[in-house]
């Protein structure tokens, strides 16, 4: 089985321990027949045998030995069970730990497209519930199966040594039980696949609801969200019940078969006893072990249910393992530590799945230049800049950095040469200090403050209760939009990379603060090519060049003054934003 092979490979380092656990399981379970055997000897020798009374007086030593043997074997089995469980637990926990790290690394290594297509809730379910289910199966379900099978076989072999014909009578129903179990397993499998999907939907809804809590509150949509959650919860619960209850359709047959073991034993065993084919002791031993044959039949449904759950979870985990990022290093990537910062878009086009978002875009940014990109919403600005650090790869054309196609550059080095502040600001649950130093963990305190000053963030940070040590939440809880943007900007410039990309980073700050930030950016004390997406003319006016995107195409290109002179899109935006102060800014742009 492919899935089990995968699991076995991932048990690396714990295989020996797991095999020991399996062997201990087999050994401990085989010993189940020892005490019934001893009790058979006791009954036949000291209770029901022909010379029972005589033996009781003459063979006391044997009786005591047999009794002590029973106690000893019980203790031995308890000790073995303890050791066995310990080995299963340790090996499965170690495996879980290893696989979790491995899968986490895999998820970290995925490209943006992977995150576009996989829901966070689903990934979380895989990394938690599914992994736990697999571990639980390794530690408990496989143990139960191995032990049930061993006890069953040991008991059957023991019965055969007593009387083969009687054993065959007792096993007469076994093939039927396996047929019923097989049909049940086939019936229930798709239900567990469906159940797993519904669990993932439930988790996705919960995750979205919690992270989007502020939007929910803002629109007073709590009731709607509760309804949505309840619906997913009901779906999951119904699927759970359906899968669990389907067992009840089969249960009466299997329970009847399991009960029949006792009836057959009473009828056939009684006859064999009366005909002196078996002794009282042997009858007692079979009676005391009949559970070993009937219980696995009874539990077969529970085991099949758990196995189906196990395979449903395992296949989800394996999905992560085999998901290959499309954006990876070339075979022999170009090794270049520090870039100059020359960026060139050469007739590039880009499609998300099938929709064309960028169409034949060409432009060049020389090292140290500042290029501003403007355009209507959805015109492809963010998509365009995402092509530089290879968050996505072009569909056609080439993006070159320092004259080399980005696909030929070493990916970590490429991204390590770019400082980026994204449009959707995400701050980690950490101190402000920790957030600013995220890309440069060794950043000194002075440097942190310096970068915060450049990003016009220092003033508000020092006014916070714990200054730079203030912990901000998952998404910068407690900070205004503009404050978050400024911390994100400080984080982007703190890494001192030769390419700086700012995606609408100052949209939420006031004009005065923005003026300060623009000045800082112009005066950065390290060589840096800047690409700035902005909607405000006040941000773009000082750029060396401004590109206007519309519908994925560059429709205008030039300096502030040149674009104003063209009287196109840029001019219209300028007029809209500067009614009344237009003249002043025109003059400024011409400087
Ligand atoms: N991950 C994605 N998958 C599919 N389509 C996407 C994805 N991201 C963006 N798009 C689509 O690509 C187009 C361009 O989006 P993009 O974010 O680049 O625009 P933008 O110019 O940056 O917009 P805005 O100014 O609103 O940020 C839009 O039509 C958008 O719906």
UniProtKB/TrEMBL annotation:
Spell out the protein name for this chain: ABC transporter ATP-binding protein
Q: What is its main location?
A: membrane
Coiled-coil region(s): none
Q: Where in the cell is it found?
A: Cell membrane
* Matches recorded under InterPro entries: AAA+_ATPase, ABC1_TM_dom, ABC1_TM_sf, ABC_transporter-like_ATP-bd, ABC_transporter-like_CS, P-loop_NTPase, Type_1_exporter
Residue ranges of every copy of the ABC transmembrane type-1 domain listed in the record? 19-309
Where does the sequence pass through the membrane? Answer: 18-38, 62-83, 140-160, 166-185, 250-274
| Gene3D superfamilies named among the record's database cross-references | ABC transporter type 1, transmembrane domain (1.20.1560.10), P-loop containing nucleotide triphosphate hydrolases (3.40.50.300)
Its domain of life reads Bacteria
Q: Name one GO cellular component term.
A: plasma membrane
Query: SUPFAM superfamilies, per this entry?
Result: ABC transporter transmembrane region, P-loop containing nucleoside triphosphate hydrolases
Q: Which Pfam families match?
A: ABC_membrane (PF00664), ABC_tran (PF00005)
Origin species, per record, is Paenibacillus donghaensis
> Listed GO molecular functions?
ABC-type oligopeptide transporter activity; ATP binding; ATP hydrolysis activity
Record domain ABC transporter: where: 343-576
What keywords tag this UniProt record? ATP-binding, Cell membrane, Membrane, Nucleotide-binding, Transmembrane, Transmembrane helix, Transport
The way this protein sits in the membrane is described as: Multi-pass membrane protein
């Amino acid at each position: 089985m492919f899935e089990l092979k995968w699991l076995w490979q991932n048990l690396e380092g714990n295989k020996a321990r797991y095999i020991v656990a399996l062997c201990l399981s087999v050994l401990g379970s085989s010993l189940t027949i020892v005490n019934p055997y001893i009790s058979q000897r006791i009954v036949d020798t000291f209770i029901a045998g022909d010379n029972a009374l005589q033996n009781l007086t003459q063979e006391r030593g044997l009786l005591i030995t047999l009794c002590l043997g029973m106690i000893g074997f019980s203790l031995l089995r308890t000790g073995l069970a303890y050791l066995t469980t310990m080995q299963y637990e340790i090996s499965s926990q170690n495996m879980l730990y290893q696989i979790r790290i491995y899968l986490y690394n895999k998820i970290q290594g995925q490209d943006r497209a992977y995150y576009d297509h996989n829901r966070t809730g689903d990934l979380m379910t895989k990394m938690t519930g599914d992994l736990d289910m697999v571990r639980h199966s390794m530690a408990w379900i496989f143990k139960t199966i191995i032990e049930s099978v061993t006890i069953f076989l040991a008991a059957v072999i023991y019965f055969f040594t007593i009387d083969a014909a009687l054993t065959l009578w007792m096993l007469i129903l076994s093939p039927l039980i396996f047929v019923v179990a097989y049909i049940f397993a086939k019936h229930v499998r798709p239900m567990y696949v469906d159940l797993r999907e519904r669990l993932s939907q439930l988790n996705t809804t919960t995750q979205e609801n919690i992270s989007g809590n502020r939007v929910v509150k803002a629109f007073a949509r709590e009731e709607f969200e509760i309804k949505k959650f309840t619906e997913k919860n009901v779906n999951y619960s119904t699927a759970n019940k359906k899968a669990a209850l389907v067992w009840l359709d089969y249960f009466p047959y299997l329970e009847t078969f399991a009960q029949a073991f006792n009836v057959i034993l009473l009828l056939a065993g009684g006859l064999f006893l009366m005909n002196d084919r078996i002794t009282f002791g042997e009858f007692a031993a079979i009676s005391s072990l009949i559970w070993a044959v009937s219980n696995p039949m009874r539990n077969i449904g529970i085991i099949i249910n758990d196995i189906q759950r196990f395979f449903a979870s395992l296949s989800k985990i394996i999905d992560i393992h085999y998901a290959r990022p499309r954006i990876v290093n070339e075979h022999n990537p170009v090794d270049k530590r520090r870039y100059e910062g020359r960026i060139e878009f050469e007739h590039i086009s880009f499609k998300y799945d099938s929709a064309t978002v960028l169409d034949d875009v060409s432009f060049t940014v020389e090292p140290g230049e500042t290029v501003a990109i403007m355009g209507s919403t959805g015109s492809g600005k963010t998509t365009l800049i995402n092509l530089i650090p290879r968050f996505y790869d072009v569909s056609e054309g080439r993006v070159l950095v320092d004259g080399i196609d980005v696909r030929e550059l070493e990916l970590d080095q490429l991204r390590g040469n770019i400082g980026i502040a994204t449009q959707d600001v995400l701050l980690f649950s950490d101190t402000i200090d920790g957030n600013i130093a995220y890309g440069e963990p060794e950043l000194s305190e002075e440097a942190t403050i310096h970068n915060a000053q450049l990003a016009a963030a220092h003033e508000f940070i020092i006014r916070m209760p714990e200054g730079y040590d203030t912990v901000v939440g998952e998404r910068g809880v407690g900070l205004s939009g503009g404050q978050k943007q400024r911390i994100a900007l400080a984080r982007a410039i703190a890494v001192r990379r030769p390419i700086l990309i700012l995606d609408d980073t100052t949209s939420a700050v006031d004009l005065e603060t923005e003026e300060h930030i623009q000045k800082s950016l112009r005066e950065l004390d390290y060589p840096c090519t800047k690409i700035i997406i902005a909607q405000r003319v006040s941000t773009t006016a000082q750029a060396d060049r401004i590109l206007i995107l519309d519908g994925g195409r560059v429709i205008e290109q030039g300096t502030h003054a040149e674009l104003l002179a063209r009287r196109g899109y840029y001019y219209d935006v300028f007029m809209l934003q500067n009614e009344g102060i237009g003249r002043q800014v025109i003059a400024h742009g011409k400087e």
